[in-house]
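User: Second chain of the day. Same drill as before.
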Amino acid sequence: MIPGGFAGLEAQLWLWMVAMIRPGAAFIAAPIFGAPFVPVQLRLIVALAIGIPALAAADFQLPLDGLASIEGFMLVAGEVLAGLALGFAVQIGFSAALVAGETIGNAMGLGFAGMVDPASGQSAPAIGQFLSILATFLFLAIGGHLALAATVVESYRALPPGAAWISADSLMGIVQFGGVLFAAGLSIALPVGSALILVQIVMGVLARSAPALNLFAVGLPAALLAGIVLLAMAAPVMGEAIVTAITAGLDMSRNIAGGG
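Assistant: Same format as last time:
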């Protein structure tokens, strides 16, 4: 016989599991939270700490047949989709720095130089890795992690559990926002990339005027030196562009959380 004090323990555990689904899915798709170096245990604890008060405010009740039913399956699927949409919108804005780094790296001649990105565990261009680290610092500096947590909590109002299906307009908005990623990445790389193109043009003119000149021996060091100097000079402007891209991702996530 189960003691009376533990009579509602199973139902409480099911509620806790439901509370972790949406924040956990958002953290998997979001930057920094979904990085491989973040322990799964820490991610679960943070998701539970965010999900319990949000679920309590939504006045949620478990399906009568439990989660092992069609209604419960639809509930879990809706929570996963809502969480992934919230986190992925922020990830799109964050990834603009990687696009800019790849563009600048190719212009500098460092397209072959790759490093392991700790945020994704995949190989990334060296300049892209630098801008990714810069984007991480800026994301934390502007309180992006707190804004994402607040967005997840607010999403329970417009998208309560059991009715958290993302509308077709919201899904189309995420797809269209993906196109903004390339525009944002190019705008971040514009100050350095345009100057490096001029350097490449000058190297081409020198190669035509002096055919005996070894272009690889002169052009690559010149492009590298110019790129490093230009990166140092344009860092404040590029930082502002990265913040703008991250803010756009957070705004898109809030729009989804509001049911728009």
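The first strand starts at residue 114 and ends at 116.

User: Great, on to the next one.
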